[in-house]
Design brief:
- By secondary structure, the chain is α+β, with helices and mostly antiparallel strands.
- It contains ten helices and 19 strands.
- The strands form four sheets. Strands 9, 14, 15, 16, 17, 18 and 19 form a seven-stranded mixed beta sheet that branches. Strands 4-3-2-1-7-8 form a six-stranded mixed beta sheet, sandwiched between helices. It has a four-stranded antiparallel beta sheet with strand order 10-13-11-12, covered by helices on one side.
- The chain is globular and about 65 Å long.
- The two termini are 17 Å apart.
Length: 330
């Protein structure tokens, strides 16, 4: 009997449309002869099943839909919601209560890793990789607060929502005059804002996944090279072609292996499950690796980083998503 898979996409954050693109890509790669796949879209206006151009309501009490007067319940949720509520543990807690398996990290890991201000000190405590100095804000600072912040951090800094992704509302601040506007913009996306010292170097990403049989796949690393005047991997660089993404990265083998080893260890220490991507900056002058963040639901569009890394070792997107389903069901 074919299993019912809820492909959950959308969400409440600025990454909603990116999630839809990822979800549609995954939908096209899943084996529809093996699974009944339902596109479930989460939107602030409501949750719905997208079917034949129609939006049919989702019963959120039981997470089910009605199809030809039959109630459809799900064997598995394939979560591809970037940001709130998919990447921060909210959906995971919901599915835990309903007893529905899912393809991502669990509730605790998702909640921790999504909030950079909480995750960074935990990662730092492991002693595997350096973490940039930062200040976590819960409200706009006054003049005294700004002065104190600048006494602790050296410009330039990055200002970003503490719980967010895709570089939405993220600004590289070079002068004191740019700081407050950047903080205000970040607060439009989240109730907490992280101000973090800028580390100059090369940006690398590494995907990790554990299969149903326990084998851990640590993918070749990717280097992100912004172009067209973009100084970092911002929203336009990520989604509008203003970056080169080189996989495998053209870097010394010792650096590549170190990034893979750190990523493999962090995957276990943070209790990760499913497809996860770790992001870093390598300070080339000091030859030091700095942790940036964990993406527990990385992008899965045709040009996204992890699918490229998987293809580099001979794993197609269809194979990767099938392995993800089997790992979750196991």
């Amino acid at each position: 009997m074919k299993k019912n898979i809820a492909l959950v996409m959308g969400g409440y954050s600025g990454e909603h449309d990116i999630s839809i693109a990822s979800g549609n890509q995954v939908y096209g790669q899943l084996d529809h002869t093996k699974y009944n796949v339902y596109k479930i879209v989460i939107d602030r206006a409501g949750w719905y099943w997208e079917h034949d151009g129609e939006h049919r309501p989702v019963d959120r009490g039981a997470f089910s839909v009605s199809d030809n007067d039959q109630t459809v319940r799900f064997d598995l949720a394939f979560i591809i919601v970037h940001g709130n509520p998919g990447e921060n543990g909210v959906l995971q807690g919901y599915f835990d209560m309903l007893g529905i398996r899912y393809t991502t990290c669990g509730f605790y890991t998702s909640a921790l890793t999504f909030q950079k201000g909480y995750c960074n000190p935990v990662v730092k405590s492991f002693g595997l990789v350096r973490v940039a100095e930062s200040v976590l804000l819960y409200e706009e600072p006054g003049k005294q607060g700004l002065d104190e912040l600048l006494s602790r951090l050296t410009l330039p800094v990055f200002v970003k929502p503490a719980a967010g992704g895709s570089s939405v509302a993220t600004t590289k601040v070079k002068t004191t005059g740019q700081l407050m506007p950047a903080i205000r913009e970040a607060f439009t996306e989240d109730h907490a804002v992280l101000v973090e010292e800028c580390i100059v170097g090369r940006e690398f990403d590494c995907g990790v996944f554990r299969k149903a049989d326990g084998e851990k796949l640590v993918f070749p690393i990717t280097e992100i090279i912004p172009k067209g005047g973009h100084e970092f991997f911002d929203y336009e660089a990520k989604y509008q072609g203003f970056s080169n993404e080189v996989t495998p990265a053209e870097v010394e083998e010792r650096i590549s292996k170190h990034i893979q080893e750190v990523s493999s260890k962090l995957y276990d220490l943070l209790g990760c499950r499913g497809i996860v991507r770790f992001d870093y900056i390598h300070d080339t002058a000091a030859d030091e690796l700095y942790f940036l963040e964990v993406n527990t639901i990385p992008g899965q569009s045709a040009e996204s980083i992890v699918p490229k890394q998987a293809r580099a070792v001979g794993i197609s997107p269809a194979e990767l998503y099938e392995m993800s389903i089997q790992a979750a069901l196991a």
